[in-house]
Design a protein that fits this description.
The complex is a heterodimer of chains A (277) and B (367). Chain A is an all-alpha fold and 277 residues long. Chain A has a single domain, classed as Orthogonal Bundle (MetI-like fold), CATH 1.10.3720.10. Chain A has twelve helices and two strands. Chain A has a two-stranded antiparallel ribbon with strand order 1-2. In chain A, strand 1 and strand 2 form a beta hairpin. The two termini of chain A are 38 Å apart. The relative contact order of chain A is 0.13. The termini of chain B are far apart. Chain B has 367 residues and is α/β, with parallel strands linked by helices. The chains are: A mainly alpha (277), B alpha/beta (367). The interface between A and B is large, with 55 and 55 residues.
Amino acid sequence: MNENRFATGFLIPGGLWLLLLFVVPVVLVLALSFGYTDDLGEAIYDTRLDNYERLVDPDYLPVLFRSAGFALGAVVLCLLIGYPVAYYIAVFGGRWKNVLIALVVLPFFVNYLIRTYAWIAMLGDDGLVNGVFDTSIRFINTPYAVVGGLVYGFLAFMILPIYAALDRMDPALIEAGKDLYGSPWETFRHVTWPHTFQGVLAGSVLVFLPAVGDFVAASLLGGPEEVMVGNLIQQQFQASDNWPFGAALTIAMMAFLLIWMSLYLRAAAREGKEATA
Amino acid sequence: MLNRRDLLKGSAGLALGAGLAGCGVGNIDRGSKAETEKPIRKRVDGDLVYFNYSEYIDPALVKGFEKLYGVRVRESYFDSMSAMMAKLRAGIHYDVIFPSAEYVQRLRSGFLIRRLDRDKLKNVDTVYSYFDDPWYDPDSAHSTPYGMYATGLGYRADKVSGMTGSWRDLGEADSGDRSFLLDDYQESIGMANLVNGYPLNETDTGKLEDSKDYLVDLKPELRGVSADTITNMVSGNAYIQHLWNGDIVNIRYGVDNPEDFKFQKCKEGLPVGSDNFVIPVNAEHPGTALLFIEYMLEPENAAQNVEWIGYPMPYEGAPTEAFQGLVKEDPEINITVEDLEQGQQFENLKGEGRLAWDEVWTEFKVS
């Protein structure tokens, strides 16, 4: 009995956190999405469906898919860059491990917005990179810049969980793989990868979620064709004073993500189970 | 053991309660007329709680005010009018805020700002007479103008050929594919309305359809839709940028060849506007706020501020001369009284019209 009460007590801080900072805001957003805006630009709670009717317009689908595409691109690039970095630090880092990990995190001390502005200065038509290499490549205002900005913004979220998984892995397992005449590739495929798969999965989700709702990269580094759903939502809240429609867009995006993520997680879990079996 | 379902049930109940309680959040507490009309005593009644765009006042003047009256100025910033309104709605107390003209109208009609007795403000008679009885605030009874702006095209005279004095230059002049539309739905739809020969604030859905078509057709000619006008032009990414006149002054501060950065007012129509000082009805230190407004109206201070912010202030004498001095190489950047009289100002759109503008802009973005 006492133990139960103790366990329940443990749930309180986390439960309150979830309740206040997740459940309540989501309920408010949901409630607001049935509202409207009055003549003073003020959002009024109501029970109308206008905002969702407006959303049914097929014009919005490409924006959702584009956002998912950019975010997926960022995940793949983060994985290709992040895995070797994490591997190097975990396996060859030795006593420098903690310093190297600190270096990975260091850029995150600078605000994401500022770092994105730095990209404009570095990659602009007359920027540092074009100046040093005496080229005139157009980096900014392209889809590549947007995906690049997302990768730059969220790379550490991929490196850290993979590093944690690699660091936890017993190096003797790799030795065992080699002893069993596994080539380096086979050892990686059958030993290292399955052991770090959960880390890869966690990293992918941690990169994908903020990236798909991001508006900073598209608005600073994109051109007119690179609008993401985050930009539309931000516009409703910050410019056109239509919070209820912004709320409906948010709910639609959450639903879209939920479907997507549940399919992905189910597939990934199955694969994970097979790989470790 | 506490099971998961109980936990979920409990939190759902709490959340619902909080959600219903939260329904009050969005609904602003309207002030009453009596409260807004109460005269303010001009005296130090505490530190000044100040709320403005960032980088929109000379920090030396803020320090000077603190020293002069022995108070602290507690500054906070917003990045859009919507964000400002959200903070006010949340019930936060500010002593002086800086809304644009249409937001003055909104705040006034909601009885949310205090009457500013003009007789009490020294130097208020230097304010252009154009602002004696503006459309957004009869008799200027609840606001005093701060900065003013006109919208046009900034361009690189050393890079662009074929500027003709028209808004169409944004898509048609040869900028080497470096044209940027301003990421501001009012300015961009307003511009499209002007190009089509309609009033700036047109809300007729058929005519707005023409304006949307203009914007959608313009899109392939654009490199970007962006409000980072200064970064775009200073970095060399933009050769033509749809922007506010004061941005060009700030851009010229940041480059080696300021003479090449020009401003064009466009013949189809000139959007003009102003930001203003107002004192919210829930201000805790309205007396200090009044002293602050008076301090900023002081011609020397205003002139110094104009040079720092790069935007003109509509006060006769030193402040006007200060701006003319800043832009003497390109007087087109200046805003004259005639510009104000002939220009068009953004108004508060109502209901259907407002929604129609929002739809045009969203459809343009997703097109």
